[in-house]
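Support reply, case 0932

Customer input (verbatim):
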Amino acid sequence: MKNVTTVIIGAGHAALAMSRCLAERSIDHVLLERGEVAQSWRTERWDSLRLLTPNWQSRLPGFRYIGNDPDGYRTLPEVVDFISDYAKSISAPVRTHTTVTSVRSDGAGYLLRTDRGEWRCRTVVIASGACNIARVPGFAASVPPSVAMLTAQSYRNPAQVADGGVLVVGSSSSGTQIAHELRRAGRAVTLAVGEHIRAPRLYRGRDLEWWMDAAGVLDERYDQVDDIARARRVPSLQLAGTPDRSTLDLNALSDLGVRLVGRLAGITQDGKAQFSGSLRNMCALSDLKMRRLLELINEWARANGLDRTVDPPDRLPPTRVEEAPPLGMDLVKSGIKTIVWASGYRPDYSWLELPVLDGKGYVSHDGGIVSAPGVYLVGMQFLRRRKSALIDGAGDDARDLSAHLAGYLDNATRRLGA
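Our regenerated output:
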């Protein structure tokens, strides 16, 4: 049995940011990681993936990008190196290849069981990630045996995909990038479009992320929005970190020959895919959200004297949708050989033996402060700020939560001394 004040579960960028902040407060801790540092980046991403945020936006406590390409986008190996270098630079106390199998209260604190022994601690930081398990709907069981299935988590490159048609399900950043890559590799691609947020890569001559950072959009706090539960479910922007900084939206995919259909609503027992008839409305709503974001940027530019120093405002043309998109497709007769589920992820808390999960299996929390005393959550969508899930958002969240954790420990010490 090993004893430590705080156990951090995970060793991704959010966990490491928390480690740095705890070290600054002289709080002894350990990070327990099932694999290597940045494990999910090493094993659960496709080969050509680039970070969606520019290099300059990779900022962690005491560490940031230093190089000659601040406006570029890191490749997958470069992301792994960046996070690994951060772990080394802060001398993070990581125990790799240590899988947590159970976390439960022992009255005075918490007992953690792993495949390499037990730990007792006073506080726990859950940093195991939001993308542990790919979401695949139950009706996937009706997919014909001749159709292979992959997820955005298991897809690696076009060579992995059989010749023939591909149905990509999901139109956020992962789905659009995978559809783009497969189409350029010569596959006949159909994209099932659900809720999405269209966005230009560049706007008025600058990266969209620059505008959102400068205008304070990314710093919006969880307690400043009317419906934080809804905000946490909003899909990622349709952005891609391509070397040419091009916009990858549904129009760009259509120009390449990708066919757009509505949200995949089900698959019948005889292998017929059923699509929602709301494709046109879904795209119009996405265009509207994009225009609202760009107008917010325009207002900020005017208010801060940038209107005359940047390119003039422009507007992307509306998303093009064919007059009568199909509502159904016989997967086999249509030549579909592969389905790629890019329909999102969910976390895995099967090891968490604390009464803190809601009805959907998510940890209930208030800005990362979990209802169980001394338990914290980091690295989740819109945890404390709109940028929480980005590398750039981990530092501010970790500073806030490490301060709360330190206060919790101080209060507990005073209670024991009373």
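We compared this against your earlier run and they match. Two observations from our side: The CA atoms of residues 8 and 125 lie 5 Å apart. The first strand starts at residue 2 and ends at 3. Please reopen the case if you see a mismatch on your end.
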